[in-house]
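DM between two lab members

TW: hey, do you still have the MarR family transcriptional regulator entry open?
JB: yeah, one sec
JB: this one, 222 aa:
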Amino acid sequence: MNYASKSLDNSAEGKPAERILFFIKSKGPSPTARLAQMLEMTPEAARQQVQKLVAAGLIEGRQQDAAGVGRPRQDWVLTEAGNRRFPDTHAQMTVQLIGSIRQLFGEEGLDKLVAQRENEARLLYRQACNGATVQERLAQLAAVRTDEGYMARVEADAQGWLLIEDHCPICVAARTCQGFCRSELQLFAEVAGLDATVTREQHVLAGAARCVYRITPLQKLA
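TW: and the structure you got?
JB:
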């Protein structure tokens, strides 16, 4: 597999097609009109770029049920080829190594590998996520996860916070060994601390476009 050597450019100077790919990756399925509005393009220019990306096999249409009377809305989503335009940390080699470990040492050996990775991540997160409040620690966690390639951000709502990861750089490896995902959920709970609970609301491995974690404080937000 060949992967992009750097993240796609979403700046004003970036190529229109790259900006569209980045927007869909970070904001989710989007219709042509929204792409034109958010990226400050004319509707016709947006349609032309969308058709180029469709022809290249990087995006595809997904019908959404109409909210009222009228035709269903079509949103654009990344295809598997489109997702491969974003780094995924040498996925093919990782999968091969996981397969070799499973063959040589069995599931017990693979569990030890996951535990070792979890311990290393725990040390890193404890050092980096030392804020006084849950919100501060989540912001620090999102920064660390972004450095690791997860394109993470935190959004607040009436119930607490959402930790949203728009990209999974170990997705292929996680499909081979789902212990990595269980380990991450445990680490996020430790970062949140005893003042909040953490649950996964969306999961790439379950077919979602991104992973989303709900952090709920045990006491109501002021």
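TW: got it. The chain has eight helices and six strands. Strands lie at 59-64, 73-78, 152-157, 160-165, 196-202, 211-217.
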